[in-house]
Design brief:
456 residues; 14 strands; 5-stranded antiparallel sheet; 11 helices; single chain; 31% helix; alpha+beta
Amino acid sequence: MGTPDERTGFARLVLPEVRVEWPVELAPVLRESVQDRHTLDGGKLCAELPSLWRAVDTALERVGPGCLVPESIRHDPYEGWQVAALPRYGPDGELQLRDGAEPARPRARDRSALIQALVDAVAERPSADQADALALLDVMAGTFPLGLDAVCRRLLLDVELRRGVGAGMAPLHEALERRAPGSVSAVCYLESAVGSRKAKGDPEMDNEDVVRVVRGGDGALRMAVFDGVTGDGDGSGGRAARAAAARLVQMWGSGGADPVAGPDAAAADPQPPRSLPGPRELIGELDRAAAGADGGAAVVLVCVQPDGTAEVISVGDAEVWLIRPLQADAVRPRELPYTAWKMTPAHTVYAERLRSSSQAHGDTSSLTSVLGDGTARWAHRVFAVAPGDLLLLASDGATGAERGRWVGDVLAGTAADLDASGRPVAPALAAALTARAEALGGWDNATAVVCAIDEA
C-alpha cells in the first residue's frame, strides 16, 4: 500500500473506510464468556454446540457463506448464542442478503472462524490462525473439553456440512453424548513391535515398552502402557518401565488377575483386594520406582468400571484415544462410520512452548515430565464409555503422525476399513497400528493395546 505524498495526498492504493453499527448490543465474544466472565462452562462447551450450529445455519442461510470471523461467535448467559455475521454490501451501500431456501454450505473461511473461536475459548492464548488452533488441539486435547478435537476436525470436512452445519455435526454430537445404558464388559488386545531401526540385536531389551493388564476383584479392567525413555541407548528406559510396572501391579492388587497375553504383559500373583490409591499417590510411587532403576518412562493408565465409568492418567507422550462408531442411520455415503478423539495431552517441550506462543518450535519428543525424574506431572480425566467403543492405549511409536493427516482420522478410517472387511476390529486395529509404525520407518518401539467395550 502506497504512502500518501506529502504534497498531493496521492496514494497508489485507496481503500474505503467502512463503519459497522449493530442495531442491538453485542454479547461477549466466546473466549470472554468462558475465560473472563465464566458465564459459560468451558468443560461443557461441546454439549452447548448444537444450539450454536442452529444460529450459524441461520446466519449462513440469510446472509450467505463467508460471513463469519472468529469474533462473530458470541454468547450471553441469558439469551444464549449470538452470531455477529458480516454481510456483503452493494455499490450503492444496500445490504445484500442471500436469496435461497436450500441450506448454505459454509465456506473455508466460515469453518476456520468456528474452529478458531472454539479453541480460543479454552486455550491459554488466542490462536493466530487455523493451523495454530489445530496445533493447540493436538497437544492439549486431554485438557480441553473431551471431543473438541473431533468437533473441529469434522468442521474441516466440507462433505459432512453440505446439508448445513447443524445436520452435518449432529451424528458426532450424538456420539459425544452417548452413554452405556447398563453394565459394560471390557476385553483388550495387545500388539507390540520393536521397530527395525530401533532393534539392536538384544531381544531382552530392544523393546522398552511394557504392558500390564489386571482385572480387579471389583470387576474393573485396569490397563497400563509404559514407554521407556532412553537417551543414549543404554536400556535404562526399559529397566525403569519394568520397575514401575512391577510396582503398579503391587498397588493395583487383584482379586483374580486376568492378564492379557503378550510380551511383558503378565501380572503378578493374585493379591487380596485393597483400597486403590488416587492419582497423586499412584504417580508418586511409580515415579520413585522408575527413579530406583536410574531411568525414565512415560505412562498411560486406564481403568474401566463395570458401570461404564472410565478414567485415564497420563505422564509424558504416550496416548489414549477413544474410537466410537457413529449411528448407522446417521452415516451417509463418503462419510466415515467412526469418529475418534484424544484423551491425553502431550508433556513435551514443544507443547509447553505452543501454550504461550504460536511461533513455537522444538523437538516434539523432548519430554517435560516422565516417571523417574522426581517431579512427574500428570493429567487425569474421568469419562464415560459405551458399547461399541474402542479404547486405544499406545506408546508414541504406534501413533506417529503422517504428513497432512490427523491421527484421529487414521484411527477412524482404519477401524472402518477393518469393520468392512469382516475382521474383528479391536485385535486387527492393534496389529494394524504396529504394522503402520514399521511402514512409517520403524524408528521406535510401537505398542498398541485396544480395549473393546460391549454390553455386559
